[in-house]
Each structure stands twice: as C-alpha cells, then as structure tokens.
Design brief:
Blueprint (H helix, E strand, L loop, with lengths): L18 H8 L6 E2 L12 H19 L9 H15 L8 E4 L2 H12 L5 E6 L3 H9 L3 E8 L2 E2 L1 H11 L3 E4 L13 H14 L2 E5 L24 E6 L11 E4 L2 H12 L7 H12 L3 H24 L4 E4 L7 E6 L5 H11 L1 E2 L1 E2 L12 E5 L5 H16 L1
Parallel strand pairs: 1-12, 3-4, 3-6, 6-7, 7-8
Antiparallel strand pairs: 2-9, 4-5, 8-9, 10-11, 11-14, 13-14
Helix pairs in contact: 2-9, 3-9, 4-5, 4-8, 6-7, 10-12, 11-12
The protein binds pyridoxal-5'-phosphate (PLP).
C-alpha cells in the first residue's frame, strides 16, 4: 500500500511545524545577518571548560555516570539545585520536589502529559513562546490567549478568564519573556500566585532567562509566593551554560512531580547522567555566576546597540525595552505586513521572525521579533540599517 495512506494521530491535525523552519532555511545563505534565532552566542559556549569537567567526572565516577540512572534525577544535582534556587529564585524546596529534565522543554511536555486531556483549557500570554505553544497544541489543549502590556500579562483579564472559563493551566514566562523581552511586575507575580490557588489553576512558570539581566533589579519568582503548590516551576541551563547539554529542571508539588516522573520513565528513562553531573559541578564549585557575568557583559552591549539602532529605525512604530534576555519585540505601523517585508529584508541580507507566529490565534501581522545574542555588535549595526531601509520604503 502507498505510504501516503498512513493514518497519523489526530493530535497532529492542523500542526505543520513548518512556519519558522522555512525562515531558518533562508539563514543558510552566506553573509546573512540573522536576528531570527534564539540561540546563545557560540562565543558563550564553554567548550573547553565542559570538556575538562566531563573528563574529570568520567575518570572519577565513569562507572556510575555511564550506567542507567534513576528517573528522579542525579541526587548531587538535586542537592545543588536546592541552594541555587534559594539563592537565585528566592524559593525554598526540598530535593524531592525537583525533577531534572532533558531541557525545560521536557518539563512542559511532562506537565502537559500529567495534566491535560484533549480540549482542556490553557491560558497563554499573547504573544508567547512558539515551542511550548506547539507542545500544548500536540496535547490538544484549547488555548485561551490573554493580552499583555509592559508589565506582563493583564491580571484583571486573567482573573476574568479563570472565573468564566475554568482553565486547567496557565503557561507563563515571567522574566524577559519570549518573544517580547518583557518582565512581569512584582504585584502581578503575587496576584497570579494568589489567583492560582483561589481558582485551582496550575501555573506552569517558565523562567530560563532570569540570570541574563543587564539592567534593573531582580524580582522574586511567582513560585516564591505559592503556598499550596499550584505553581510548577521550569528552569533551564540552556541559555547560561549550553543548550546542547539539554539539562533543565521542574520543581513542583510532590503529587504533580510523581505523575511527571512516571511520564518521564516512558519518555527517556532519565536525563543524561554525565550532563547532569557537569551542571552539578558548575553549581557546586560556584562556576555558574562568574561564567554568566561574562555572557551578561557581551549580551548587554548587544542589547544596548540594538535598542539604539531601533530608536532611529524607519517604519518601526513601537518596540519593547527589555532589561535582559535575548529578544526585542517590535511593531510596524498598522497595516504593514512583517511577513511580506521579510522577503525584502532577506534579499538585503538580514532576517527576523514575523510576530504572527507567537500569537495563539495568529494575526498581528505588523509585529516581529529580533534576537541580539547571535549577531556581533557590528552585525547588529549593519543589519539594523538594512532593516531601516526596508521598513521606511
Ligand atoms: C521561554 C522558553 N522556554 C523554554 C525554552 C527551551 O529551553 P530548553 O533548551 O531548556 O528546552 C526556550 C528556548 O528558547 C524558551 O525561550
């Protein structure tokens, strides 16, 4: 029988996964300046250091690290995470409330696996991170977008939706959000923790960017205001050590974590032990923050340069002014189409991601996302001049 008659699962209905992939193909053109990705700069990846650490760890305990391990995670890493989380995210938890995962992408997948039936309602920020929206779609969630402003998601609207729609989950990126770069205010963080327990909604708090702050002061996590366990916190070392290591973690109430652990057993048994041990080594030996400091200096300068160039960029009506992270979100004049203009930009040798892909219901065609971690300062200057040319015509 012809393979075209294969019957795929309904969960893939309407999911093409191709929108952004098409853009990434364009980036292979030599000389292209890309503001489209979301990767850490290659200069920030500590290849030599990770090599040294992995080598030493394998000499010392290779027989353990190369063997199967517990789904619950590498115990020393869980201990290190307890103090890291207290220090950096201002909440206390026990090692039993932490599940190391294969990138925080897996934390989201496991939460969806544990909690969602097809058709369950999930509130997302509008706009939000495309990757996790895809995960929610694959679990056949019914997405309810709630708009955000410079202080993050609109909490009055959120309460209204909690009251009238009874969603099961809220997915939120409170710090240097992807794609907007915005940070949720302190008041809203407290209110969301309170609303979650009042209405019985699980908050999936996704915070991979917190350590990449260039200006302003840190805010406590939503989880730090959680008294009953409604907030599940997802963290990652992708942006501060290496995305290729695929080490993230989920912190959640033991009842939630138990289901996620069972879900992980059939997914990958456990996260690679050598990689968990490398991250543990970074935390245990206070290597993380000095390394982050060097990344912050370089990304901070790039963010400044891009913001300066945006202030004189033709055609751009508004843009966010992030205090950290990797992205700036921009709006062209109403009626302009960032997808159509991307073709012209690419002809000139510069690329970005049209913002429409970050909205659960599409639309918002005049928006686009810029990344500043990958290009050099020089490329940012040249690329932004090219964009100004394209947009002012
Ligand atoms: C908001 C957000 N969450 C999660 C991730 C994925 O992180 P990880 O590499 O830990 O799976 C990303 C990556 O771009 C992201 O932007």
């Amino acid at each position: 029988m012809n393979i075209d008659s294969i019957r795929f699962a309904d969960r893939f209905n309407g999911i093409s996964g191709s929108a952004i992939r098409e853009i990434f193909k364009l980036l292979a053109v030599p000389g292209m300046i890309s503001f489209a990705g979301g990767n850490p700069s290659p200069d920030s990846l500590p290849g030599e250091k990770v090599g040294e650490i992995a080598n030493a760890l394998l000499q010392e305990k290779g027989k353990i690290l190369l063997q199967y391990g517990a789904t619950e995670g590498y115990a020393p890493l869980k201990e290190s995470l307890v103090s890291y989380l207290k220090d950096r995210f201002s909440f206390t938890c026990t090692a039993e409330e932490i599940l190391p995962v294969t990138g925080s992408t897996q934390a989201m997948d496991l939460l969806c696996k544990a909690l969602l039936n097809p058709g369950d309602k999930v509130v997302v920020e509008s706009p939000t991170f495309l990757g996790n929206m895809q995960c929610l779609n694959l679990y056949q969630a019914h997405l309810i977008p709630v708009e955000s402003d410079d202080d993050g998601i609109n909490v009055d609207k959120l309460e209204e939706v909690f009251k009238t729609e009874h969603p099961k989950m809220l997915y939120i990126i409170p710090t240097f959000q992807n794609p907007t770069g915005r940070t949720l205010s302190l008041e809203r963080r407290k209110r969301i923790a309170h609303l979650a327990s009042e209405y019985g909604v699980v908050v999936a708090e996704d915070d991979p960017y917190r350590d990449l702050r260039y200006t302003g002061s840190e805010l406590p996590s939503i989880k730090s205001f959680d008294e009953e366990g409604w907030v599940a916190f997802m963290g990652s070392f992708s942006k501060v050590i290496s995305p290729g290591l695929r080490v993230g973690y989920l912190v959640a109430h033991p009842n939630i974590l138990r289901k996620c652990t069972i879900g992980k057993q059939s997914s990958d048994v456990h996260t690679a032990l050598v990689n968990q041990a490398v991250v543990d080594y970074y935390l245990r030996n206070d290597l993380l923050m000095p390394h982050v400091e060097t990344i912050r200096n370089s990304y901070g300068e790039k963010a400044d340069t891009m913001l300066q160039m945006l202030s004189k960029c033709g055609g751009v009506a508004r843009y966010t002014k992030p205090e950290g992270g990797l992205f700036i979100f921009c709006e062209l004049e109403e009626g302009q189409d960032a997808t159509a203009l991307l073709k012209k930009a690419v002809e000139k040798g510069v690329a970005y991601v049209p913002g429409t892909h970050f909205y659960a219901n599409g639309g918002h065609h005049n928006t686009f996302r810029l990344n500043f971690s990958m290009p050099s300062v020089e490329q940012i200057k040249i690329g932004m001049e090219k964009l100004s040319d394209v947009f002012s015509r």
